[in-house]
Each structure stands twice: as structure tokens, then as C-alpha cells.
Amino acid sequence: MSLFGTTSGFGTSGTSMFGSTATDNHNPMKDIEVTSSPDDSIGCLSFSPPTLPGNFLIAGSWANDVRCWEVQDNGQTIPKAQQMHTGPVLDVCWSDDGSKVFTASCDKTAKMWDLNSNQAIQIAQHDAPVKTVHWIKAPNYSCVMTGSWDKTLKFWDTRSPSPMMTLQLPERCYCADVVYPMAAVATAERGLIVYQLENQPSEFRRIESPLKHQHRCVAIFKDKQNKPTGFALGSIEGRVAIHYINPPNPAKDNFTFKCHRSNGTNTSAPQDIYAVNGIAFHPVHGTLATVGSDGRFSFWDKDARTKLKTSEQLDQPISACCFNHNGNIFAYASSYDWSKGHEFYNPQKKNYIFLRNAAEELKPRNKK
Amino acid sequence: MGRKKKKQLKPWCWYCNRDFDDEKILIQHQKAKHFKCHICHKKLYTGPGLAIHCMQVHKETIDAVPNAIPGRTDIELEIYGMEGIPEKDMDERRRLLEQKTQESQKKKQQDDSDEYDDDESTASTSFQPQPVQPQQGYIPPMAQPGLPPVPGAPGMPPGIPPLMPGVPPLMPGMPPVMPGMPPGMMPMGGMMPPGPGIPPLMPGMPPGMPPPVPRPGMPPMTQAQAVTAPGILNRPPAPAAAVPTPQPPVTKPLFPSAGQAQAAVQGPVGTDFKPLNSTPATTTEPPKPTFPAYTQSTASTTSTTNSTAAKPAASITSKPATLTTTSATSKLIHPDEDISLEERRAQLPKYQRNLPRPGQAPMGNPPVGPIGGMMPPQPGIPPQQQGMRPPLPPHGQYGGHHQAMPGYLPGAMPPYGQGPPMVPPYQGGPPRPPMGMRPPVMSQGGRY
């Protein structure tokens, strides 16, 4: 029975080797734990594209490594390979054909990891840590887009040491997403720019941020015709903005919602507001998942504007998340994200990556 | 509704001053927002009912009605829908309404959905340039069911559809998900059927309401009819208009005229995006939007709406800026400086130890000094500075190697490890200080 198939019920079966102790809250959702998880915080996760048979998960961590696991249908995770950078890895992505993995690191470089040969070569260079890396596949070109804290967005042909194009950003790049022909980049100081990638990348519009706090994560969503039509932007203030690029009625169509906050408004204690560390859209349903510093993940339906589910609280923040190509698996990483500063960092604490069956829980709510 | 002694023309909630199209919806609203037990979420019928429930079932006393505006929190007043409202409050309301009718309702915008979370007005009204009329109690979470007034805004310059008159798309009134939602973004469509006796778009629609603004293609009439049904988002006459055609199925190009602006390079392009055959590419100017009105208004909307948002609660003055992380009612779980968590973490010596240095031994954290004071003193060293001296060619230690960098030629690399775990990293680059975690193995192979 396939653990991650749509018809099966996922559950506690699987390789959870850490028995359930009464007080241990590291996996309250009883999801599958990925074996051999990284030794330091996980900053990014990415599943293989549909062109590869099966599911392969890549995770980049603050231990400077990038690890690859094969995730089998029964929930077993098999470590496959690993590469290193000389600095923490901040972002990872796959090429469209599933043969290469691109990794971006604090060592100011981005690398291309050829999985077949297990070789990694540097393909990009910046003046500051590279925060985002994305593969762009256009009909007439292909390239890697890197966003860095050096306030530039560079596009690289992996065969050449010089960038094909460099675009200036108003501020340090904090997060980005690419769904051809659209790219969305959010920067420090609440900068937000949308690029169009047809023919060649160019800035399409600078958008005034719908959020009032520092941008932290962004994810593009598509319309019913499978074309990118807007994005979800998360901030450090427990809030996500849904923003359409060309909505018929922006004031009505665009909205924000609060998330990842503790306590209700009914209690007297001040509410704790946590950062949204990641947003991912379900590839089939179009619903989205958010993960936060509060150690919870939530599923939302942006069209029905409702929350579908919120998880129990993990004992560590959830630092990254992603869906696999068909939406059956939701992976989320439990590791410290520095939201409470240096004092709360415990290097001994184990970092986890959990896998959950996402086929059922992310179905859109039926609208009346 | 023509009776003189009308309770305000439209039902409204005494606890939070919101308007509703219909008393039924008002009651649902009250049950969901004001008479809902915060412990077990049971919906009661009245304030006193809620108090009794909490006492009997949970042994808890409750002294104020949840989500009520100050002055209207009396839990002992038995108010159900419009019944039980003290006369003086009714009068006050009538007066306020009259005042408002003159300048008509300001736009009201619903940012947050009830279903998502409750919200404080300030935070959510990011699109709302104007202060909300106190009386409307534009409490974000409660979308006013079909509050037509808003659109009225006489100020509504034609062609600024987005400026949201604020029909809160969500009709929170309905506890369950938005009924009106389906058309969701397309309010225009079919005018909400359910609307119980949808009063024509606001008779009150102040004359100010610009008549069918010449919205591209927007059938004027729509406004009039429009909505009003609870949940019809579409209120705002003009803006709403926007909807007309774009019923979901219609696919508008995401980036209109994108092609034209780029000199339409259809053929293969070289490594610098210049077409391999000939035509020089044009400048990368943003393409002209096909619907200028929309894009502009969108732009202006966003700008206006955000003008009030002003700077985030934090005072971003200069680097290192700090955030206002604590307020009376909430606390932001984030370090005070307004830099990202990753930047903060990357400043630690622990994470800089292995960064490549131009031929130097691993080094801790060189002072920022040499950087020419680019960064004002910060608690840590801004990541940009990690060991990269400005004088160095931008590509750092790799700069000089680029030309010869065999690293870029696939296949020129000596095979490194083939085994799955632990494959030495770089294929190129001068020997670096041994990484904390790896044996020097790689240096050997990596030399070029």
C-alpha cells in the first residue's frame, strides 16, 4: 500500500524511530521522519520535478551541506548523496529535467550538482551570500536566477562564468519564486518586484508591499488555466498577503490574513506573533501551506478564504516546507530559525524533516 | 422600507456598529462574533445567555461581550438582532447615519477573512487609505455584508476601480465560508443570488456615486443592480464594474505586451540574451499594459492604500533599523533589528569560519573596517562583509580563475568521490582553508 498515494491513509507507520515518549513534542503530528537529517538547521527543501520517476527530496542546511534522499511510496527515506558548500546553504532547486540540483549558499556562490555524476561545480558568484536560486526554463533560453544580499539578481548560463544578465534590486534579496513566465522577488525594506521572463527577464512592476513588516517568503500561485497569476507573500509578523498581478478588482481580490499567532484575542496575555518561514502551494489543488516560527503548519484555501487545518505545535520552529510534484507529500523541517536570537540556539537539538500525506487535507473547501 | 420609524434603514449590530443587509445575517453575525463562547465555541443567542453558559458549563465568569467596541460591551443587555437596542443608541445611530449620508460612506476594505483569524483593524487595513468611519465599525474581521455605501464615495474618481470601496468580499456574517464567495473575485457575476431581498444597490447610494464609470467594458447597469446581496462583494459600483468580462475562464495575458517590449526575440538567444541571429534586443522596459486603466489604477491604488500604512510599525530609520516588537496586545517573536533571521545568524563567527578567503587561513570575523565603512556599525558583521575585501575583484578568489576555470567545463573535473555521501565540494578554486568539516582531501583534487 502506498503511503503517499491518494487512496491510502498515511499514518504512524513508517520509519519513526523515535518512539513516542509522553512529553516529547518533536513530532506531535506523528508524521514520517526523514532518516539522517542534517546536523544543523534546515533552511530549504525541494522535491524533484515530475520528470523524475519517484520522489527525491533535497535539503540545504546551516551545516553547509545539501542532502538528497529518495522517498519511497511506503514512506521509507533513503539517503542518496550529499554535497558541501563552504557556507550555510540557503536555497536549493531542481532543473526541469531532474538531472541537476542548484544550491545557493552564504559562501556567495551557487553550484550546480549533477546527480548522475555526483559532481558539483560552481556556476554563480556574488558579492554577498546568495539567498535564492531558481531554474528558469523558457522556450528560447534556460538559465539559473540567483538573488543575493548584494542587491542584485543575476541570471547564469551554467556554461559561462559571467552572468547573462544582472538586474539591480532596491535592497537585499530575501526571497523569490519563479513560475514561468513570472518571477517575484521580495527584498529588505519591504521591496517587492515582479519580473516577466518571456524572451528575456525584465522588470515588470514594482509593487508597494501589502504588508507592513519585513518580507520573509514568497510563493507564486496559478490560475485555473495553470498560468501564474499572483503570489502569496509572508512576513515576520504572522501575516500572509495574497496578491494578484492583474486582478479585476484589486481592492477586493487582494487580501491579507493573519496566521502563526498564539493565544486568541480573548485571553488577556499579549498575543505572540511569529514569522512565516515558508509558503508552498499544492500543485494540484491550488491551496497553500504556511509554516511558522511558532512550530506549526497550516493549510489554507485562498479562494474560499478559509483555513483548512492547523497542526499541533512542534517544539521547534518549522523553518521550511515544500510539496512534491503531485501534491501527495508535504515535507516540513523542524529546526531553529533564530527567531528568538542566539540565546535559544541549542546545537545539540536534533533537526527533523517530516513527511506528511497531503492528498486529502489540502482539498479546497467547497464553496456555497 | 419607507416607514418613518424604521430602525435605521438597515439592521446594524449594537455591539460593534456594523451594518448588515438583513436582520438574519445580523443575528448570525452576533452569534458568531459576540455570543460565541471562547472556550467551547458554542454559539449562544444573547449576551446574558453567553454569560450563563460560561458560568454553568465552564465555571467561568465573563464580564464583557467579546469583540464589542468600548461602551457597548454590556453583557447584561439582552439584545437579539435589532431587538433590545436602547432607544438612545438608536437615535445616535440615526444621526450618525445622516451625517454619513452626506459625505457618503468612505471606502471600506476588508482585508482579513473571518475564517482565517480575528484581526485588529489597523493591521489589516493595509489597503484602506482612509480611516474608517467610527460608526461603521469597520472592523476588518467582519465584512459588512453588502455594505453598499462604501462605493458611493463620491470621491471615487472614475477609472480607479481598485480603490476599493471596500466591499468586503467576505461575508463573514455567514459563519461558514463565504457564501458569496464563489464568484469570489467576480462579484459582478450574477449578483449574488442568495441575497434575501436584495435591496437595489443602496438606495442610499449617494448621488455622489459616479454613474457607471466608463470602465472598460463595464456595463453601467451592473452597478445599480449590483449586489447588495450579502456577500456580494461587488459592491463598489465602478470598481466592481471591472469584473464584467473577466469571468474566470477568460485568460488575460499575464504580462500584456510583454512580447513587444522585448523586441520579440523568438529565436534562440545567446548567453547574454541577445538573439543569436541578429536583432538587437530592446531595452528592458516594462511592457505597456493592455489595460492601462487597470494597471495604473492598480498602481495608484497600491500606492494610496499603502500611504497610510506608512512604515511598518517599526521605525525604519537607518541601518541597523529596529523593529517595534512589543506592543500592548502583541509581541513579535523576532529579534529587534530589522534584518532577516538568516542575516543575523550568518554574522556569527561559527557560520563564517569556512568561508573562502583569498588564500588566507580560515579566519574568524574580520572587522568590518576595511570595507570602507559601507555598513554602519552593526552588532554583527553584515553578511556582505564576510571576509570579502572590497579591493578584491568582485568574484573574490574566483575572479582570477574565471577564465581558466576549468570548473565551468563539465567533464574536466577529476572525479571526486563517487560514493553517495560526502563528496568533496568544489571543483575549482584555490585551496581553501580546510573546512571545518572536511578532510583536506578536496584541496588536492581541486587545484587548478
How would you characterize the overall build of this protein?
The complex is a heterodimer of chains A (368) and B (448). By secondary structure, chain A is mainly beta. Chain A has a single domain (32-338, 350-362), classed as YVTN repeat-like/Quinoprotein amine dehydrogenase (Methylamine Dehydrogenase, Chain H, 7 Propeller), CATH 2.130.10. Chain A has one helix at 250-253, and strands at 32-33, 42-47, 55-61, 65-71, 77-84, 89-94, 100-105, 109-114, 119-125, 130-137, 142-148, 152-156, 165-168, 173-179, 182-187, 191-196, 202-206, 215-222, 228-235, 239-244, 255-258, 271-273, 276-281, 288-292, 297-301, 306-310, 318-323, 329-334, 352-357. In chain A, strands 1-29-28-27 form a 4-stranded antiparallel sheet, with no helix packed on it. A 4-stranded antiparallel sheet of chain A has the order 2-3-4-5, with no helix packed on it. Chain A has a 4-stranded antiparallel sheet with strand order 6-7-8-9, with no helix packed on it. In chain A, strand 25 and strand 26 form a beta hairpin. Chain A is globular. Chain B has 448 residues and is mainly alpha-helical. Chain B is built from 13 helices and 1 strand. Chain B has helices at 23-34, 47-58, 87-103, 121-124, 149-152, 221-225, 237-241, 258-261, 292-309, 341-346, 349-352, 396-399, 441-446, and one strand at 330-332. Residues 105-250, 258-265, 278-319 and 359-448 of chain B have low confidence and may be disordered. Classes of the chains: A mainly beta (368), B mainly alpha (448). Chains A and B meet through strand 5, strand 8, strand 9, strand 17 and strand 20 of A and helix 8, helix 9, strand 1 and helix 10 of B. Strand 22 (271-273) of chain A pairs parallel with strand 1 (330-332) of chain B. Chain A: GO terms for molecular function: RNA binding. Chain A: This is Rae1 protein homolog. Chain A: One of its GO terms (biological process) is cell division. Chain A: Keywords: Cell cycle, Cell division, Cytoplasm, Mitosis, Nucleus, Repeat, Transport, WD repeat.
